């Protein structure tokens, strides 16, 4: 997804968008497809995330369209008050692109993981929060964010996520269908967990369990009405996220279903309320936490029967 | 604590070999970052830090913080040599589910005082520890190893001002000034020079040395604290990837993990240990 974002930045610059790309000394090689053709639109602000965010606010105040890039913890947690006060509160059109959502930086440990970011981001008034599920969604998310007249946060996973959509989504704000079943077991995936959920759904299909899979890239503003419509026939609704079970997609879903006519079962699959003290590849860590494809399939099968 | 200069120099080679081996076996990067601070770490652990592996939580021990946590391998190797991290544990560096990951995780039994990985926290925590020691009338020392890219972080300078204001003369900062950060040369990204003058202006006692010269390192450590009533900093001019010709001064080796040929070639250059 990172490469899709960087490619899209270059396209937007060619299309005449007055963007300026800031990185906090991250993105070795990945950023070259933008940096090389547009050196004058590229600034490495150094290992100084808080300053970068507030500089972006200042740039936006002069009419530029800044994009700030770093790993989620450094971009968002470290610089948090700068995000809140200088970018979000004045509703400046700054796009924050965070790489390494969830456990994507597996071996690097908890300093590099981000399991609370969606919860925090959702609570910031006026911040659009996008968690694309594949490179196609990533491009659409950035294009959408860049025409907003306000701040946005785009949460990415690793760089090698598979392409799951045949064509660009019509509206990134809505749940995007990946696999349609009978509408009885409906699974919503957050961000880069889409690939894992798709894998789980394929194995369920082989076991005779039909599920509907949607990517839900826009966690704020949350598509309450569409979610309610998509779940009218459902008996089981499941959310899957590489994020704490507190405050992320599952919580947003619960808030959306609350007060609707939905009376089936609801399960959120996510990370426990604890910091990771071990390490491994993202895939290994997902299995460790019981959110790997096999675990998800088993949970859903049990719920559906 | 009475290793000779020749012993230290030999140990530095052994440590570099171990760094290469650990990166190779775990397929992890940050070799360049690790090789640049080996001599400093070896001297600190063998000639400076007062520690007791038999009682790792000894209240009077010196505290060391590896603020540039991405260079964890020479840190783990030094801790293992001093008897903190068992050899079997070190051998499992980077193994899934193991205890030693690519950034240090706090574990006082292993001599790891602070989880690091996010740059620009160590000096503040170190200042807090030194402040606590001072308030309690204790004489132990606190040492913080930072990178040069880390000097970009505003928090480092907040800590520098705090430490000077509170006259934390038992605080020693070491900057591994290898002139490179994640995307290129420091002076092209955020020029830090004159770094020694900046620390001096902030009221610190400063020594600028060749961070690969064991005599100069030991000499500087011997002179600590550099000035009465002030925190001290060693600005160590170093070379990223020091010790392996094809890794020296190369940004690629911030990221790359050696393939079998590179692995053999690197070890071949690190002989006479
Ligand atoms: C707060 C923070 N921002 C970004 C990073 C990502 N990062 C890891 S190493 C590094 C820079 C490496 O250069 P330097 O700090 O000079 O250390 P060296 O490897 O040269 O010792 C960066 C930006 C980080 N670890 N922490
Ligand atoms: Mg450096």
Strands of the biggest beta sheet of chain A: in what spatial order? 2-1-3-4-6-5-10
What structural class results from the helix and strand content of chain A?
alpha/beta
* The CATH class of chain B: Alpha Beta
Q: How far apart are the termini of chain B?
A: 19 Å
CATH architecture of chain B: 3-Layer(aba) Sandwich
Beta-strand fraction estimate of chain A: 15-25%
- The order of strands across the largest sheet of chain B is 1-2-3-7-6
- Given helix and strand content, the structural type of chain B is alpha/beta
N→C terminal distance of chain A:
35 Å
Q: Please name the CATH topology of the largest domain in chain A.
A: Rossmann fold
Give a list of the ligands.
Answer: thiamine diphosphate, magnesium ion
CATH class of the largest domain in chain A: Alpha Beta
Q: What order do the helices and strands of chain A follow?
A: HEHEHEHHEHEHEEEHEEHEHEHH
User: In oligomeric terms, what are we looking at?
Assistant: heterodimer
Shape of chain A: globular
Give the helix tally of chain A: 12
So, the CATH homologous superfamily of chain B? Thiamin diphosphate (ThDP)-binding fold, Pyr/PP domains
Mean pLDDT of chain B: 97
Segments of chain A where pLDDT lies below 50 for 5+ residues?
none
How would you spell out the order of helices and strands of chain B? HHHEHHHEHEEEHHEHEHH
The major beta sheet of chain A can be summarized as: 7 strands, mixed
